[in-house]
Design brief:
The structure holds two protein chains of two kinds. Helix content of chain A is about 20%, strand content about 25%. By secondary structure, chain A is of the alpha+beta class. Classes of the chains: A alpha+beta, B alpha+beta. Chains A and B meet through helix 1 of A and helix 7 and strand 13 of B.
């Protein structure tokens, strides 16, 4: 299963970010979310959701071998990670994030919390492996 | 303190001084936040009789304990000041993302005082607060400056800014944020401009402390599920406030030609379905809002992007100024947004001038040669620009329709559609007695969001006034709490999310464990305090300031409400009942007993000294 993103439906409300940080950190702080929304205003007036599509590129390039795959989800080993930032800089989808209070990059673990409460249908589960998760 | 950022910033622009202090717990517990904080500070700390555009006036930005929190539509920051347009108490709120950013930076409130020598903006990045030079942004449009500042500082910064209208002290200039959210009413932007303050940029990355986070998450998730399953959810999400255009036209409260409603015009080109097809680009939400009521649009004809038009814009430029093409309305919307002026007051003032022109009270010599007729789009475009830069007739219009009618005379006061100096929002009230009473008794002037009673009026009978005073007082008690909590009213108003949910969320966040009744008492205290502010600031304040323009006593000439009108007796009877319920005397002044009951004994002493009670 993958997270399918339809940015055309996104309204930029940030409920996904709030839910994500509440689920993973038990904190009210969307700045700690593993999902972000880039806002293209005033023109063309659209939103672009940025979230990991589990492509695995970060596993390949991590010099500490701190990123590993488990059930098709790429995760960060907090023991091994030195927070060097290479995965954040190199992510082809710009979908890894940092926060000064968090000592490893923040990355989607496909928990699915955000999907349930997206009020606009911009996030959904996809069983179709051929589809790109992030367009 | 749970739910609060914990700090207040005081910025004295004359001295270039920034001071931070802790939020006082007693103050927070008694006045909650947002509008409550503003009412208390303006009454207690603003010296009586200051010039609203002088350095002594204060401008306050206040969030609430729910602003920035995981709660549906917890997206409001409130601006407050002594209004340059009305001379009385004023607050105006905006959605977007600024309130959340302020809280994540750790601030509940920012108080601006004094006047800078040169154009400046306030830069806030978590603990760092600086007054910075804004000369490169001065003179530029609000939308343009927001874009430029985001490019300069980073996308993550949330920006609030004024346009040229604010710099030029147009009395209804606004403060703009998120490319189309505004603190629109009462001239907040002019007060920014008078202090040479162009903008504020905020970034915060901290977490908001929550008293019981698991409880909050459960309540919020259930509120979100409730909203997303509501029958009206999908339609409101698509059309937002523009859905009111249909309701307004079908039930006859569209303010056609300066609220005259003298012809049965269907305005097919302004309908929400047509607008959606013709100019819609995306649905745009404020922070944590499932409703995304804003329609972001693009006009091919004028090549501009706009957040809107909303119902008020459609009804004021479309109905009141009689522009029947949605793209013309959208372009007028764009001009007002970029110049930074309140659309309701701008269009209301233009429509008033149009009626004066049509009646021959003013002529081409007065209008700089412009043919200021209803429906003349080119005239509207020219006049908007003249207002923003106070050129020629624009300077006269920049004062608002009350001041204009006082200068013009010749009976024009009868159709100057304002209350307390604030141009009326877009509801023609001759068949809406409770809505009229809402406008009359609103504590900032004729603004629709203080209590919106249309559905009640339609249900209870449009010619009866029974029970309306009670209804208005009740709504005016719930409503202010939304802006004290720092949330938008729409989940409660449009999705009927029960107020008990808000009480639970408030208590989960703060741990105050307040009952609904306790919150209502606080709300009544705040409402009474703002009334006392008017009594103190406006010498002859009383019942006369609550009375509507005489147009409401003339029968509606055409359309579905043809013949409807209210009599002076009925209007006064509504006020009598309302004052009695409020514990105010027959002139609308709070009584000593009521002030004491609300723990406002010191206010009673003030009003006694002034000879008001």
């Amino acid at each position: 299963m993958k997270l399918e993103v339809d940015s055309a439906k996104c309204t930029g409300c940030s409920i996904c970010q709030l839910i994500c940080a509440l689920h993973h950190f038990k904190e009210n702080n969307p700045k700690k979310a593993a999902i972000r929304i880039a806002k293209k205003f005033p023109a063309p007036g659209l939103f672009e959701i940025r979230v990991c599509n589990q492509c695995g590129y970060c596993e390949d390039i991590c010099p500490q071998e701190a990123i590993y795959e488990e059930d098709e989800v790429y995760k960060i080993n907090r023991e091994k990670c030195t927070n060097c930032g290479i995965c954040v800089d190199e992510c082809p989808n710009n979908a890894l994030f940092t926060h000064r209070e968090v000592d490893v990059p923040i990355k989607c673990d496909l928990c699915g919390e955000c999907i349930e409460y997206c009020p606009s249908g911009a996030l959904s589960w996809s069983k179709d492996e051929k589809k790109e998760a992030v367009k | 303190m749970n739910g609060y950022g914990g700090k207040i910033i005081r910025i004295n622009l004359s001295e270039g001084k920034v001071e931070k202090s802790d939020l006082d717990q007693k103050f927070a517990k008694e006045y909650i936040g947002g509008r409550g904080f503003i009412a208390k500070i303006l009454y207690d700390k603003l010296p009586s009789g200051v010039d609203p555009l002088g350095p002594e006036n204060k401008l306050i930005m206040a969030t609430g304990p729910l602003s920035g929190v995981f709660w549906p539509s917890a997206a409001k920051v409130v601006f407050g000041t002594k209004s340059p347009l009305t001379g009385g108490y004023a607050d105006s709120n905006m959605g977007g993302f600024l309130m959340a950013e302020m809280k994540y930076a750790g601030y509940d409130m920012i108080i601006f005082e004094g006047k800078a020598e040169n154009p400046c903006y306030i830069f806030i990045d978590n603990d760092l607060v600086e007054i910075r030079d804004a000369s490169k942004y001065w003179g530029k449009g609000a939308l343009d400056v927001e874009k430029e500042m985001k490019e300069d500082l980073g996308e993550e910064f949330q920006i609030a800014t004024i346009g040229p209208a604010g710099e030029n002290l147009v009395k209804y200039a606004n403060i703009s944020h998120d490319f189309g959210r505004q603190a629109g009413r009462c001239g907040m932007g002019a007060v920014f401009g008078s202090k040479k303050l162009k903008a504020i940029a905020v970034r915060g990355t901290k977490s908001i402390k929550i008293n019981n986070i698991e409880e909050l998450v459960n309540i919020s998730k259930s509120a979100l599920r409730y909203i997303m399953n509501h029958d009206y959810f999908k339609r409101f999400k698509i059309y937002g406030t523009t859905d009111s255009t249909n309701l307004s036209l079908e039930t006859g409260f569209f303010p056609t030609k300066n609220f005259r409603l003298d012809q049965d015009e269907k305005f097919k080109g302004l309908r929400p379905e047509f607008m959606r097809e013709k100019i819609w680009v995306s649905d745009k939400a404020c922070f944590a809002c499932p409703l995304s009521c804003a329609n972001y649009t693009y006009s091919k004809k004028y090549n501009v992007f706009v957040d809107g038009p909303e119902y008020e814009t459609i009804a004021m430029f479309g109905g009141s100024c009689f522009l029947k093409d949605i793209e013309d309305v959208q372009y007028a919307n764009y001009l007002c947004d970029n110049y930074g002026m309140d659309i309701i007051s701008t269009a209301g003032t233009i429509a008033f001038a149009m009626e004066c022109y049509e009646k021959g009270i003013i002529n081409k010599k007065d209008t700089d040669g412009i043919e200021l007729k209803f429906g003349n789009f080119d005239a509207v475009v020219k006049i908007i620009k003249k207002i923003a830069y106070k050129e020629g007739i624009g300077e006269f219009l920049s004062e608002g329709c009350r001041n204009m009618s006082e200068k013009i005379g010749k009976g024009s006061g009868k159709f100057a559609m304002h209350i307390k100096g604030l141009e009326s929002s877009a509801h023609e009230c001759r068949g809406l007695p409770a809505m009229l009473l809402s406008y009359m008794t609103s504590d900032i002037g004729a603004q629709h969001t203080r209590s919106w009673t249309i559905m009640h009026d339609l249900k209870l009978g449009r010619n009866s006034i029974e029970g309306r005073a009670e209804l208005v007082k009740e709504l005016q008690t719930v409503r202010p709490l939304m802006e004290m909590f720092g949330v938008c009213r729409f989940p409660w108003l449009e999705m009927k999310l029960d107020f008990e949910n808000y009480v639970k969320a408030f208590n989960s966040v703060t741990g105050f464990n307040y009952s609904k009744d306790k919150l209502f008492k606080i709300s009544e205290r705040v409402w009474t305090l703002t009334r006392a502010f008017w009594v103190r600031e406006v010498k002859d304040f009383g019942r006369n300031y609550d009375l509507p323009p005489e147009r409401v006593y003339e029968p509606v000439p055409a359309g579905v409400t043809k013949g409807m009108h209210l009599t002076k007796d009925k209007v006064n009877q509504c006020l009598d009942e309302y004052y009695e319920l409020r514990g105010w005397n027959s002139n609308g002044i709070p009584t000593e007993a009521k002030l004491k009951e609300l723990s406002l004994k010191y206010v009673a002493e003030d009003l006694k000294k002034l000879g008001k009670i």
